[in-house]
């Protein structure tokens, strides 16, 4: 089976992007990262992608003002140029329109640093600590128009420690992110994930915590 052609969309340091690139170095991995796109010109992840020989391009949203559709047309053009089959959002800090999301339905993944549906949005670690949560983690899900709301593909959990700082908790969750994103992409690329009633089934069954 040919490997799926994947674009990773970033806005910053790109550590999840790097984890996906590492996983895809294995010839048996069912996906290859062929393109990285950042909406921020000086995103740290761009240099990492280039040093791995991956095409890394900038589509600067500020150049399009408030015209989200025009930004997405430019993005879509890059994706088509590189014959992209799957998209991984990895710290990509732009909301995408329903039209773009529909075009990539069940072919676009996102990673969120919380156990969805808890703590959608920003500052998840701070909010988990403030809520006194004992368990926290990360989720990889299919992207739907509503933010952080799509069918969950894989989740990984960590314990929240009594004296945790936001930074310590974030670092613990990040190690989980780097493990579960390559796993989720693998499952999707292998065609093992099906969405039924807004829930993901893996090999036809509900899947356990990863
Ligand atoms: C990660 O915590 C990810 O879950 C969130 O944004 C952060 C991006 O980090 N969506 P990185 O750029 O992958 O290092």
Question: Short description, anyone?
Answer:
By secondary structure, the chain is an alpha/beta fold.
Describe, in plain words, how this protein is organized in 3D.
With 210 residues, this protein is an alpha/beta fold. The chain contains six helices and nine strands; from the N terminus they run E-H-E-H-E-H-E-H-E-H-E-E-H-E-E. It folds into two domains: 1-104, Formyl transferase, N-terminal domain (Rossmann fold), CATH 3.40.50.170; 111-210, Rossmann fold. The protein has helices spanning 15-23, 44-51, 68-81, 98-103, 124-130, 166-189; strands spanning 4-10, 31-38, 55-58, 86-89, 108-112, 135-142, 152-159, 193-196, 199-202. The strands form two sheets. Strands 3-2-1-4-5-6-7 form a seven-stranded mixed sheet, sandwiched between helices. Strands 8-9 form a two-stranded antiparallel sheet. The two termini are 25 Å apart.
Q: How do the helices and strands line up, and which of them pair or pack?
A:
Layout: E1 4-10, H1 15-23, E2 31-38, H2 44-51, E3 55-58, H3 68-81, E4 86-89, H4 98-103, E5 108-112, H5 124-130, E6 135-142, E7 152-159, H6 166-189, E8 193-196, E9 199-202
Parallel strand pairs: 1-2, 1-4, 2-3, 4-5
Antiparallel strand pairs: 5-6, 6-7, 8-9
The structure holds 5-O-phosphono-beta-D-ribofuranosylamine (GRF).
């Amino acid at each position: 089976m040919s490997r799926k052609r994947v674009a990773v969309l970033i806005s910053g340091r790109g550590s999840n992007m790097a984890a996906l690139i590492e996983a895809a170095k294995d010839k048996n991995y069912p996906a290859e990262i062929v393109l990285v796109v950042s909406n921020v010109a000086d995103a740290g992840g761009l240099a990492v992608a280039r040093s791995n020989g991956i095409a890394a391009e900038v589509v600067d949203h500020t150049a399009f003002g408030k015209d989200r559709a025009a930004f997405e047309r430019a993005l879509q053009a890059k994706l088509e140029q590189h014959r992209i089959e799957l998209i991984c959002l990895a710290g990509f800090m732009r909301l995408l329109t329903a039209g773009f999301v529909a075009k990539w339905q069940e072919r676009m993944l996102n990673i969120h640093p919380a156990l969805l549906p808890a703590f959608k949005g920003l500052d998840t670690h701070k909010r988990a600590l403030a809520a006194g949560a004992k368990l926290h983690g990360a989720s990889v899900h299919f992207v739907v128009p509503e933010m952080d709301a799509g069918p969950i593909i894989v989740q990984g959990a960590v314990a929240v420690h009594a004296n945790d700082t936001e930074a310590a908790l974030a670092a613990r969750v990040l190690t989980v992110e780097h493990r579960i994103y390559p796993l989720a992409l693998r499952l999707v690329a292998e065609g093992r994930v099906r969405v039924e009633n807004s829930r993901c089934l893996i090999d036809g069954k509900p899947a356990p915590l990863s």
